[in-house]
Write a structure and sequence with these properties.
The protein is 71% helix and 0% strand. The protein has 187 residues and is mainly α.
Length: 187
């Protein structure tokens, strides 16, 4: 036995070691569990969770329980399948609840993921809007500063009116042009 194991080890050492190629994808391993599409499963769980949260589901569930209890109380004893403590009904409702809770949680997780993505998109949009608003605010401030340096029609009018008043005052002071600034040369 020991001799055979020693010979197997020798053969294993002599075999070339297969190199792992990094440029090729790994071979798929066989799986024991069946494969499924998580997205399709998630959509189905959302549909079920949406149905479980409706009044229609509550009405159907109530009718089912009432019929079940009524049948097992009022039917002939040979046709009854769940006697008074209604253990089978309790088991069925427990089974339904044990499947409903994870499906509802899965649907909520998917909704949380969608909300998170929407929130991130909204946050980015808000950041862009804030940046645009700040840019426009700076531009408006620059335009106001530029307009402050531009002569407006009202400012030019007021300056011209001031000049006219000043000329009228000079004319009143020096009616015949005898004052300063006469352009007539002395003869």
């Amino acid at each position: 036995m020991a001799a055979e194991r020693g010979q197997e080890r020798e053969r294993d050492r002599e075999r070339p070691i297969a190199r792992i190629r990094l440029d090729l994808p790994r071979e798929r391993r066989a799986r024991l569990l069946p494969e499924y599409d998580p997205e399709a499963f998630g959509r189905m769980s959302e549909r079920i969770a949406r149905f479980l949260g409706t009044g229609r589901f509550l009405v159907w569930m109530t009718l089912t329980v009432v019929v079940w209890i009524g049948w097992n109380i009022f039917a002939p004893p040979s046709l009854r399948f769940d006697e008074y403590p209604f253990i089978f009904l309790t088991l069925a409702l427990s089974l339904q609840a044990s499947y409903a809770a994870p499906l509802i949680l899965l649907a909520q997780n998917r909704q949380d993921d969608r909300d998170r993505v929407n929130l991130e998109q909204d946050r980015k949009q808000n950041e862009r809007s804030i940046a645009d608003t700040e840019y426009l605010t700076r531009e408006i401030a620059a335009l106001r500063m530029g307009l402050g340096e531009v002569a407006t029609r009202d400012w030019i009018r007021s300056e011209l009116q001031d000049l006219i008043k000043e000329l009228e005052e000079r004319r009143d002071l020096f009616p015949s042009g005898e004052g300063h600034g006469s352009d007539v040369p002395d003869r």
